[in-house]
Every structure is written in C-alpha cells, then in structure tokens.
Fold this protein.
Amino acid sequence: MRNAIELLLRFGYHLLFISMEFLCFYIIINYNHEQKTIFLNSTNILSTSIDSRVDKFNQYLRLEQENDSLHLQNARLIEKFIDYDLNASLYANDTLVLDSSKYHLVAVEICNSTFNLRDNYLTLCKGSSDGIVPDMGVVSQNGIVGIVKKVSPNFSIVMSILHSQSTISCLIKRNNSNGTLTWKSTNPKLLNLEAVPKHKSVFVGDTVITSGYSTIFPKGIMVGKVKSVVLEAGNNSYTIEVDLFNDPSAWDATYVIFNNLAGEQRGLEASITENE
C-alpha cells in the first residue's frame, strides 16, 4: 500500500495530465463533426493497413503448406497421365486394363543439384525412411530428371540425365522407334537419341517419350522434341538431337516413381539369367 501511495505521489501529475488529454480528445472527437469524421477515416486506414500486413504474414506462413499441397496434386496428376497412357495402349491391344496401383509418385524437394558439370547429380531431401531405394526413376512435372543411385535414411543421390553415364530407353512417339537417350553436349537442354535404326522414319519435331522397357520409368513420360536428324554415310543409325521439354537449370521439385511390381519383375528376369 505504501509503495502504491509513493508511486501515485511521484507520477500523479503525469497520470492526471494523460487522463485530461484523453478526455479532451474524447470531447473534441465526439462533439465536433469534422474532427470525428477525420478520426474515423484515419482509424479505418490504420486498421486496413494492419489487417493487410497481418494477412500477408499469414500467407507467408502458409506458403510451405500450400507448396506441399501443390506438389502432391502434381504427383497425382502425373500418376493419372501415366495410367491413362498405359491403359489406352492396352485397350488398343484388346487386353486387360493395367492395374492403376502399379505406379505412385512421391513429391520430394531438391536439397542440392548441379547442371553445368560433365557428370551432374541431385540430392533429394528424402531417403530410405520414406521408402526410396536405388534404381527408382525421378521426374518433374515437365519430364524426366534422373535415376536414384544411393540413399541414406533422409537423403537420396540421383544421377541426373545430364551425366556421361546416363542412358535411358526412349521412343519416337509417332512410330515407336526405340533409342537410347544420352547427354554428350554442354547444353543442359540438348540431349542425343542414339541407336535409332536408319530404316525407321524420324522427323524434326517428333515427340520423344520414355519407352517403359525397364522398371524405372513407365512408358509415355514426355522427354522432348527432335531438333535435328542426321544420317551420316556408312552409319546404320541416325544422329538425333532432342530438345528437352524439361529445363534442368530450373528444377525446383521432383517426384520419385514407386513401381510396386518392380521387385517381382526384376526377380523373374534375374532367374532367367541365372538359369542360362
């Protein structure tokens, strides 16, 4: 009590002054139309400004969640595209419809990557604890990215398509001409399609897709368009340049392809090799 009285004696004049100021403002604002209008407009402007800043801050906090949601939606869309393309081909052959659960995609952020070296790799921010194992395919929403080579519990190393040892089986979509996609240039958007025999027709502008001749990539993932076709004298196959739909220098998110039947297929194929 004594302390309260001392504080009141020490700061009483200041408190009285502040109280009188508030009382004066109240009387001026409530009994003068112009001042009241100015006060209300100013309050509205200040309130709107504060609300806007709060909304922007909340949007920033939600960005990561929204980004994860978009990645998940993209994964589901790519899955539907894969299933649709494969099912369409099976219908054309009058056979059973492919089980749509064969493939599913998991969105994974890129922790680190290179694209300007001779042998380029990516580090993904998920690993074996999320079910990722070596020899899984990796794609973006615009095309192929590479193949998982090594994993730890929380990270995965991917050999990029921009690697001297990268070889991916692909097709000319128009006539199913098979070839091998490699990277021999210094341009990250320009790859080569090798071993397409000369008796097949290949034209500039043809679309190149994955062949599906492995457990890594399903058939039909878009790769790029033929930029140039050359048949050199004495060669039995074309020299083909492919302009990627994907821009490796702009990869921001990837999707790892889980082939639920990969183990069964590889086991069966391995048994044939052992028997021989």
Summary: The two ends are 100 Å apart (CA to CA). Residues 84-99 have pLDDT under 50 and may be disordered.
